[in-house]
UniProtKB/TrEMBL annotation, chains A, B:
Protein name listed in UniProt: Xanthine phosphoribosyltransferase
Species, as recorded: Candidatus Butyricicoccus avistercoris
Annotated catalysed reactions: XMP + diphosphate = xanthine + 5-phospho-alpha-D-ribose 1-diphosphate
Localization per record: Cytoplasm
Domain of life: Bacteria
Subunit structure, as described in the record: Homodimer.
Alphabetical keyword list: Cytoplasm, Glycosyltransferase, Purine salvage, Transferase
Keyword check for Glycosyltransferase: yes
Family membership: Belongs to the purine/pyrimidine phosphoribosyltransferase family. Xpt subfamily.
CDD domains according to UniProt: PRTases_typeI
Binding site for xanthine: L20, N27, K156
NCBIfam families from the UniProt entry: PRK09219.1, XPRTase
Main location: cytoplasm
């Protein structure tokens, strides 16, 4: 998606070799006009496939998922990273490792909001090692729902996550795939 | 806001006396059509006051803030609850106590995204004891930005937060104010 790639090149920053910071427009400050175009593109890629629910994980994915969900006319369910006193009833649960925060989270979603009749689109901002996305896939499979696919804003194509998730048989559409960081410059896959 | 009050009455649940669960449409599963009407109402209440940025706190506030921001045509900045390796540069910092999770968080926002030229609307899903909103106010004041006001979906009018925040001189608009829970039933202020 050219608009996203242009934003990454113009407003993203490469730190410490292979850390891409997009906090100016995607995951700390959020450019809602750009994110609306991202949502429009996810809809173009997944429309007509019966998506009735968008699943994401807190925190960065929520805004992207909510704006994308407006194009599909479906609700969002966001997976929570820690058990909350306000989550009652039974939950599906899995584990996610955050390499950014260097810790492991329990992730949960209420059984009230995910079931075998759902056709789910997974949405997240980044795909690198794939731990978050694999955690979402595990939760959906526990629920018996159908995974239509995953919509990712930025995939680190040189990292292991994309291969792992696709080897699980999940269709992944990434709007910007980074091939490599070369001398501090971002090189996208075609 | 009648639409929100109706949703609370029809889809909310009162637990343990005074815990209101709205996870069916606001803070776990998110009804984006309803949230779009909430965003439209925040814009009606705060339009023409030069709002150029919406500030919220992860996680539940992010989706509401992003959809509301589309009505204002401004970016969202969401405050983070824990120091992240991917937040570099200097940050404004404060503390927030979560009574739901029974813990205290450090909350941070990058100085890159909040400054003395900003006119900020604060948005969050709930106002009860006010700790999250007071944390946001503290961060904005550190930045020198102007607080235009706060837009809250649901205020527990019987709790202390609303008085505390208003006594700080911050204008608060809450779309549904709960007067009391009477025999497990929700009573709204007029």
């Amino acid at each position: 998606m050219k608009l996203l790639k242009d934003a990454i090149l113009e407003r993203g920053r490469v730190k410490d070799g292979d850390v891409l910071k997009v906090d100016a427009f995607l995951n700390h400050q959020m450019d809602v006009e750009l994110i609306n175009e991202i949502g429009r593109e996810f809809h173009r890629l997944y429309k007509g496939q019966g998506v009735n629910k968008i699943l994401t994980i807190e925190a960065s994915g929520i805004g992207i998922a909510c704006i994308a969900a407006q194009h599909f006319g479906v609700p969002v369910v966001f997976v929570k990273k820690t058990q909350s006193r306000n989550i009652d009833g039974e939950v599906y649960t899995s584990k996610v490792t955050s390499f950014t925060h260097q810790r492991e989270y329990d992730v949960i979603v209420s059984k009230n909001f995910l079931n075998e009749n759902d056709r789910v689109l997974l949405i997240d901002d980044f795909l690198a090692k794939g731990s978050a996305l694999l955690g979402l896939i595990e939760l959906v499979r526990q629920s018996g729902a159908t995974i239509v696919g995953a919509g990712i804003c930025i995939e680190k194509g040189f990292d292991t996550g994309g291969k792992l998730v696709r080897s699980e048989g999940v269709h992944v559409e990434s709007l910007a795939i980074i091939k490599e960081f070369k001398d501090g410059k971002i090189v996208f896959e075609d």
